[in-house]
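#lab-general

N.A. 3:47 PM
ok so I finally got the sequence cleaned up, no stray characters, all 229 residues accounted for. can someone with queue access submit it? mine expired

B.Y. 3:52 PM
send it over

N.A. 3:53 PM
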Amino acid sequence: MKGSRDQAAPCRVLSLVPYFAELDPDTLQAVAGASVRRNYGPGQIALLQGEPSIGLYVIEEGWLKVVRASTEGREQVLRFVGPGDVFNEAGVFAGARNPATVVALEPATVWLIYRETILQLFDEHPRMARSIVEHLARRVLHLASLVEDLSLRTVEARLARLLLERAEEGALQRRRWATQTEMAARLGTVLEVLNRALHRLADEGLIEVDRHQIRIRDREGLKAKALIE
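B.Y. 4:20 PM
back already:
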């Protein structure tokens, strides 16, 4: 019974990922059977920048952050990833070393699919290859937007844009790990500068900040701050 549950788990997880949606059941089961389950606790490193890239990772449970770090230890958060997300595509398909570090923010379970398996699937399933190419293209556009934000927008403008993009029903809910330090790293700044930006937006009546969420009070005013037309 335990073996059947273990076999079903990666199949269920992989079937929810667009990359693998077009695979026939036998192929999906074969990929699942070749996958390796890995568990991480908060703060544990799932992937280290600069190490050889061994495969693609699919998240079953938990949230992790993808970061680039300077030699001085300062982090730039590239994105947060959660259940159903995939990471390390660039390392797999470029045949390069891991381009970033991935750190668990809470207890997390991921499935590792080795590079050789992914490349074989890429060759044998054109629709899967197309899906991966489209996903990577969107990732390039995201990174281009991130570079533009860091280069051309103030921290206040970047914060306003983040709130507008991530808020659901007018509020950005804070997960347990979503500290202001993490938010600062995502915006490419430091905690003190982020706190000043939050206070300015709150003082102007654009947002309301409490312990568990940041609520948008004036969407149009926030859009003006974010320089969004």
